[in-house]
Amino acid sequence: MLKYILKRLLMAIPVLLGVTFIVFTIMSFTPGDPVQTMLGDNYTQEAYDEITEELGLNDPFLVRYVNYVVDLVQGDMGVSYSTKRAVSDEIFARFPATVRLAGAAIFLAVVFGIPLGVISATKQYSFFDSGSMFVALVGVSMPNFWLGIMLILLFAANLGWLPASGDKGFLALILPAVTLSANSLATITRMTRSSMLETIRMDYIRTARAKGLRESRVIIHHALRNAMIPVITSVGLQFGFALSGAVLVETVFSWPGIGRLLVDTIKLKDTPVVLGVVVVMAASFTVINLVIDILYACFDPRIRTQYK
Fold first, then answer.
1. Residues 6+ apart with CB under 8 A from 204
2. Which of 47, 122, 55 is nearest to 82 (CA)?
3. Burial of 263 (0-12, 13-18, 19+ CB in 10 A)
4. Looking at residues 276-287, what average pLDDT do you find?
5. Which end of the chain lies in a sparser environment, N or C, as judged by fewer CB atoms within 10 Å?
6. 228-246 pLDDT tens trace
7. Phi/psi of residue 120, each to 5°?
8. At 11, phi and psi to the nearest 5?
């Protein structure tokens, strides 16, 4: 098991290098001058040249990228151009808010998505099945930012039941979590239904029913457990997508997470912060995929034998 985990972590290194190189390239060659943004409209050429030299922006592109990677390996993400604070402090001050939002969204998606998928599979072609699949199709197709705006207009502006923005407690979490969970809930519902339909047609399910086991026990203890492998994959991927997809939702709801930080710093062309956020998101996605692979062994004994 330990050898497998180390192998997966080593495989993540070229992925992180590739991601940082792409983002560094985009930030380097897109229009905009971070030094001018820092100094404002009124500045002298001496001050401009001094800050440019201080930030190392006079160095060639590859030299700047290699220097960044070397500092990153040593745990130094750099200093923000706009706030002069360490990038790691900027990110990890906001990262818990993003994790809380993504966790709440996936919790809602799992709690409602898996039961809906199971019931739809066991009642295939029924009115419930058709209705839930229609709602799931709408959820997959609907943009998060549009749903968020509609929820704000209904529950915040018109009814006044919930806050429209900010992180001001449990009530402020409801609207952004529901918005972020819509696509994940639809995906998990459809994946659960598909996996359950395939599983309940297996011979061992017919054997369990022939033995006289209750239908609820057949579905929950036999069918659902064996149908969970693709569902676990879907849940893990959706959690990773929620962390990265929170960018739009955090912007709509003014949620103080790293998604909103990413949008704000891209406008300022604050390259160290943008790169730091991307690295944290990519690393989080890698860890989530590793956890998914380990969870497989908890549900499928055939995979446990491979670890042994």
1. 222
2. 55
3. middle
4. 84
5. C
6. 878 888 888 888 878 776 7
7. -60, -40
8. -65, -20
In tens, the pLDDT along 282-308 reads 888 878 877 877 776 666 666 656 655
Q: Specify whether the CB–CB gap between 10 and 244 falls below 8 A.
A: no
97, 256 in Cβ contact below 8 A? yes
Question: Within the chain, how many helices (H) and strands (E) appear?
Answer: 14, 0
Show the domains of the chain with their CATH numbers: 96-307 (1.10.3720.10)
Task: Let me know if 238 is exposed, middle or buried by CB neighbors in 10 A (0-12, 13-18, 19+).
Answer: buried
Q: Which tens digits make up the pLDDT trace of 256-269?
A: 888 888 888 888 88
What contacts 101, CB < 8 A, 6 or more positions away?
A: 173, 176, 177, 180, 242, 246, 249, 250, 255, 257
CA–CA separation, 175 vs 105, rounded Å? 10
Higher pLDDT: 134 or 246? It is 134
What is the predicted pLDDT for the residue at 107? Answer: 92
Q: Within a 10 A sphere around the Cβ of 167, how many other Cβ atoms?
A: 18
Q: Is the pLDDT of residue 12 over 80?
A: no
